[in-house]
TrEMBL record:
This is Sortilin N-terminal domain-containing protein. It comes from Bacillus anthracis.
Amino acid sequence: MKNVFCLHFFNRRKGWACNKKEIFTTTDRGITWKKVVYKINDIYKLV
C-alpha cells in the first residue's frame, strides 16, 4: 500500500485505509486489501 494517509482498524481483523484516490478495506488483519466502490454525488467510482 503506497501513499496511505488514513488507516483505521475497527477490531483486530477489520479495517480500512485510503490514499488520495482510492479506498481499501481488509478483513484479515491487513494481509489482503480490497478496493472499495464508492459514490459521490450520484456518480459511481470504481476505485
